[in-house]
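Human: I would love a firmer grasp of how sequence relates to backbone shape in proteins. Take your time, and here it is.
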Amino acid sequence: MSLLSDSQYGPLLPDSDGVITLSLLLLPEYSMMSLLSITEPLRIANRVLGKKRFAWQCLSATGMPVTASNGMALEQAIQMESCSEPKNVFVQASFHPEKHLCEKTINWLRRLDKAGSVIGAVDTGCYLLAKARLLDKHEVTLHWEAKPAFHERYPHLTVSDELFNVSGNRITCAGGTAASDMVLYFIHHYCQESVADLVCEQLIKNGSRSHSDNQRPSWSKRLNVHHPKILKALELMSSNIEVPLTTAEIASVLAISLRHLERLFMQYMKSSPSEYYLRLRVEHAHSLLSDSGLSVADIALASGFCSTAHFSRRYRAFYGKTATQYRLLASAQSGASF
């Protein structure tokens, strides 16, 4: 993560009157939680300061209200090409981001980039930036659930697990309440530290998290397991999905015998190492089926299976239906086409 050092303007660009405006481009099915996590801290900061230091506006490709993932739509949205050139624009997205990409929006973002605007993305909004080739040579973060599919689609990009990331004039955020941590970073940068603290108090929030905090709890917290060899084994497994390690290779890295590793897993995980590893790989494939347009064959390879038939048998054993059946069902429910 390379947060910008203090400069004349900092990570965002001010308007001519010194007000810092965030223009929020809403894609269909965006997360309203992320949107409110941006706007509410800014509203409270203005209230604490007693003046308008921050402003925001919602944009859409058509100027019509955009329906969020919760089925609600804000009444007001500005047609993106009708407003004056935004200096700080953040693409807001969530479910099925690739379904809502269009050349009109991509070209608009490219024009803003050439004009020197700061361009950011929240949750899966980075799909649009990646499609526009605006993330090349930049580190990026997005919601952890969408990370596997994004990595498969854009393997040349560096993706972090951070809450938010400032890389030059690109700012990306994992979404959800992490958006409030990003905004609190902005408030802390442009106002006194006490202002950010007062905003946290108003939000009944126990301070802001660092950008470098991981999005998900550690393995030990998630599973309530604290044995260092087990935790290291889980890290190795989750980091080697596409080309799985053998159980013997994992044991070798941990400097223990294969038999000892198997005993530890049976004691702490109630499973053999190979069975638990298989579960992680199938869950990874399930995520790709839900969040990417990759073919079932490509997903099988990306999850470490040598053949689609082998993958389908394993997937069905875990989820009660084949991968193809699941995708057809998910497609019918969402209206998406893969």
The beta strands are 20-26, 54-60, 78-79, 88-93, 118-123, 139-141, 158-160, 164-167, 170-173. Residues 248 and 265 are 14 Å apart (CA to CA). Confidence is low (pLDDT under 50) at residues 1-8. The first strand starts at residue 20 and ends at 26.
